[in-house]
Amino acid sequence: MQPQEFRCKWVDKRELWNRAERVRETFWQEGTLPVDTERIVELGVKLNIEPKHGLFSAIDMDAYLKMDLTGIVVDHDFYMNDKFANRMRFSFAHELGHFFLHQEIISALKFETPLEWKKFIDSILEKDYRDFEWQANEFAGRLLVPPAQLKREIEKVHEVIRKERGLMQLLEVEPEAVLSGVSPALCKPFGVSTDVIETRARREGLWPPT
Prior knowledge:
- By secondary structure, the protein is mainly alpha-helical.
- It has two domains: 3-144, Arc Repressor Mutant, subunit A (Orthogonal Bundle), CATH 1.10.10; 147-203.
- Helix content is 63%, strand content 6%.
- The chain is built from twelve helices and three strands.
- It has a three-stranded mixed beta sheet with strand order 1-3-2.
- The radius of gyration is 19 Å and the shape is elongated.
C-alpha cells in the first residue's frame, strides 16, 4: 500500500461501542474490573506479545499490531514495569481496536521494522491517520470502561458532592473543574488514566451528573 492509498473508513460511534462491548462480553466473561486486556490478547484473541527494547524511544509508540496480525510488539521497559500497568492496559486495548476494526488496512501494509512503520505513518494524510487512531482509542475506552459501571461510580461521587454545599455550587458553574478533581478516584476501579476516565464520562453523557 502506498501512502496515498491509505484510507480509514468511517464507522459510526455506536457501532464502535457495540464492537467493543461484544469483545468484552466474549473474551472477558468474568465481568470484573479492571479488564485484563493482556489476557484477552494472549488467551482470547491468541495474539503473541513481543517485547522490544527501545521501541518507544525509536518511534514514540508504546505498542503496535504486527502487519501479519499475529501479535503485538510492545516497548520492553513499559511492559516489564508495573508502574506502567494502566498505560499498557490501554495500549493493548488500543491495538485490539485496530485488530477488530482495521484488519483490512493493516494486512495490506508490508513493513519489516518499526522505523518503516513510523516512516509510513508520517507520510499519510493527517486526517486519515487521525481517524484511524481515534477509532482505536474510542474502542479501547469503551472496552475498558463499561458505561453502567462508570455510571455507578459517578453516582457514588455525586452523593459525596451533594453533602458539600461548596462543591455543589462549583459543580453547577465549573463542572470540568470538579471532574478533574474527582477523576483520580473515578479511574481506580477501571485501571485507566484520569484522561481516559474524563473522556468516557463526557462521551457517555454522564458528566455533569444530574
